[in-house]
Design brief:
Blueprint: H1 6-30, E1 35-45, H2 47-52, E2 62-71, E3 75-82, H3 83-94, H4 101-129, E4 134-136, E5 140-144, H5 146-151, E6 157-167, E7 170-180, H6 184-197
Antiparallel strand pairs: 1-6, 2-3, 2-4, 2-5, 3-7, 6-7
Helix pairs in contact: 1-4, 1-6, 3-4
Length: 198
């Protein structure tokens, strides 16, 4: 884990959970299911550690929604699911059978929208609570081996937030990864310290 204090980590966890809570409220307005989202753990790791020990197994690849952010912090945000979990989530959200041929056609659009709402909720929470300015790119959906996604990242630090999607009787696990470019990690910590001292 990178060098941040317990208080800083707790503040980040709270900010991420606020953003995830807003995203869950938005999703609940769009679908016929009640979604509860929680983030039980948040940690910072180096990009090298992430590449050597990916947060998601690389068996059949992953489904990911990614977008870049620029402003007071620069980097990329990604929501990642194992392909099996992604398929289950889309089946529940769309009402299609898990083995339906239509599910493949729906997967990219459905997960892109879920990722867009969730990542915007998280980044919006960070920027609002830390009085920071951020601009976002249009989210991109990909199904690739996890190392392909991690290989091109130029990050000083990576925040990993484990996200649990509770829908009906299901719990689907995903990962939110925020890749902070050089200098942005320290800017984030500086902003958190200002908030803690306020």
């Amino acid at each position: 884990m990178m060098d941040i204090s317990v208080e800083q980590n707790d503040a980040l966890t709270e900010l991420i959970n606020i953003g995830v809570g807003h995203a869950a409220s938005t999703l609940n307005c769009l679908i016929n299911h009640t979604i509860r989202l929680t983030v039980p753990t948040v940690e910072f790791l180096s990009i090298d550690k992430i590449r050597h020990n990916p947060p998601i197994g690389d068996g059949d690849g992953i489904s990911s929604v990614s977008m870049s952010f620029h402003g007071d912090f620069d980097g990329n945000a990604s929501l990642m699911f194992p392909l099996v979990s992604a398929r289950t989530l889309v089946a529940v959200l769309t009402g299609e059978e898990p083995d339906s041929a239509e599910l493949d056609d729906l997967r990219s659009g459905t997960l892109a929208e879920v990722g867009n709402i969730l990542l915007n909720g998280v980044m919006g929470s960070l920027s609002n609570m830390l009085a920071s300015t951020l601009d976002y790119s249009v989210p991109i959906y990909q199904e690739v081996p996890v190392q392909d996604l991690l290989g091109h990242q130029e990050a000083e630090a990576v925040l990993i937030a484990r996200a649990n999607f509770y829908i009906d009787e299901l719990c689907i696990e995903g990962n939110i990864l925020l890749f902070f470019e050089l200098g942005s990690f320290q800017s984030l910590i500086y902003s958190i310290n200002k908030e803690l001292m306020a």
